[in-house]
Design the sequence.
């Protein structure tokens, strides 16, 4: 779709958001957006709070739509892409808006998508249709600005202006202060096991607009389509929708308040919580009491096999491990291994693609990884990774040059002396060992990789 056409569609969509009462109805076959003639009892707005009007405000919807479009994502159960949904909304948004304002909107089921976890198993996501993602995003924007200031300063996940880096840095400060034993709590399938009644009770403490309460409950109970069948959903906040992280933070705010009340030092990022104490015995007592609290108060299950009381260097937190004295942030071994596995996939010898195409796919991964793990305090590890990546690409090129004659020509073209090039080109040595050969190293220096725009994961240095 051309840029001009997208701009035209966007302007038309904004006009639809601005329309307040055009009296349009939807096709009766459309699930989740029934005709307004359907017999339902509208919810009257609460006198003291009119949140749904804020949700449906044009400016709020414009921001929500921009966020949904920027995030892209796959279609939901209705099969409509972002652009197809934009066309649908231009015609049907006034009716959907009326359903929201009357408190009778019914979301569609989410589509089950499974993605592999880095440490084994699968993570089950629930992908809402684009219309429901838009509505969830609009609700999120209204609720988050009210709720977020009330959340604990020790909570870092999915909050504006907070990050995993801040959580790891704070954990490091606790350890440096002498709290060098960590109570590492792992909640088993947290997003799948949030109790709806407990969650809605906490939402109701903060929201008096019954239409918003009913809408959030409808999203929770919308069901999951898996293998063509819709299964009821009586617990959990399926990962995949914009509203899920906020609701999860709301549930775990009880844990934050309990730990704060007891005076503990802790960092929580979503369902990943580490508490720092001065001794192993204190950690064991705390682990037992917090497990009881989570089980009885929030009805959540602690994964005992993955939870532990240990020294910081023995555990990982958000992909990092911290030395026992708090002096150094390191990349966790499993994170390093996952990185190498992915780079191997992107640079395998049998790809059969040109080097520019390889770099085109490899570069975004390296930049993203560096953006997160460049926060570590082990520059030598990053430098060694850079050297390893360059060596893998030398292997790729050496194989691509195929035979001795072509290898000799490529080495000579890159300034290798004739004798050295002949020795290297005629060598029967394997690919990996040849990637470290002086002639190959001379032909493919570090500055060559800089010239083809291969990102470095470590800070730049002169080749």
Sequence:
């Amino acid at each position: 779709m051309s840029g001009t056409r997208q701009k035209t569609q966007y302007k038309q969509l904004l006009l639809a958001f601005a329309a307040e009462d055009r009296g349009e109805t939807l096709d009766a076959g459309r699930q989740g957006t029934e005709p307004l003639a359907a017999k339902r009892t509208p919810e009257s707005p609460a006198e003291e709070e009119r949140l749904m009007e804020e949700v449906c405000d044009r400016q709020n919807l414009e921001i929500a739509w921009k966020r949904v479009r920027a995030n892209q994502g796959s279609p939901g159960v209705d099969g409509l892409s972002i652009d197809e949904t934009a066309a649908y909304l231009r015609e049907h948004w006034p009716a959907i808006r009326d359903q929201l304002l009357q408190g009778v909107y019914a979301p569609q089921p989410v589509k089950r998508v499974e993605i592999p976890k880095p440490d084994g198993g699968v993570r089950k996501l629930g992908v809402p249709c684009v219309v429901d993602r838009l509505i969830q995003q609009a609700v999120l924007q209204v609720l988050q600005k009210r709720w977020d200031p009330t959340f604990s300063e020790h909570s870092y996940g999915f909050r504006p202006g907070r990050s995993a880096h801040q959580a790891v840095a704070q954990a490091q400060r606790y350890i440096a202060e002498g709290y060098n034993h960590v109570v590492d709590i792992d909640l088993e399938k947290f997003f799948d096991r949030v109790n709806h009644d407990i969650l809605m009770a906490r939402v109701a403490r903060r929201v008096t607009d019954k239409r918003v309460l009913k809408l959030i409950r409808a999203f929770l109970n919308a069901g999951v389509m898996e293998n063509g069948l819709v299964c009821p959903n009586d617990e959990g906040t399926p990962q995949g929708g914009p509203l899920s992280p906020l609701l999860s933070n709301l549930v775990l705010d009880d844990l934050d308040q309990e730990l704060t009340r007891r005076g503990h030092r802790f960092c929580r990022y979503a369902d990943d919580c580490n508490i720092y104490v001065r001794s192993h015995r204190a950690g064991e007592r705390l682990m037992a009491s917090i497990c009881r609290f989570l089980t009885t108060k929030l009805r959540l299950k602690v994964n005992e096999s993955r939870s532990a009381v240990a020294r910081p260097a023995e555990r990982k937190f958000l992909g990092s491990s911290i030395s026992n004295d708090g002096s150094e942030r390191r990349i966790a071994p499993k994170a390093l291994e996952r990185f190498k596995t992915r780079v191997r996939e992107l640079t395998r010898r049998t790809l059969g693609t040109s080097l520019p195409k390889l770099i085109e796919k490899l570069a975004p991964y390296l930049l993203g990884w560096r953006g997160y793990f460049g926060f570590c305090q082990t520059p030598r590890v990053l430098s060694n990774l850079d050297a390893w990546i360059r060596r893998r690409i030398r292997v790729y090129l050496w194989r691509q040059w195929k035979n001795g004659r072509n290898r000799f020509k490529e080495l000579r073209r890159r300034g290798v002396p004739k004798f050295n090039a002949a020795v290297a080109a005629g060598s029967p040595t394997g690919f990996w060992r040849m990637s470290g050969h002086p002639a190959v190293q001379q032909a493919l220096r570090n500055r060559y990789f800089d010239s083809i725009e291969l990102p470095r994961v470590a800070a730049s240095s002169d080749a």
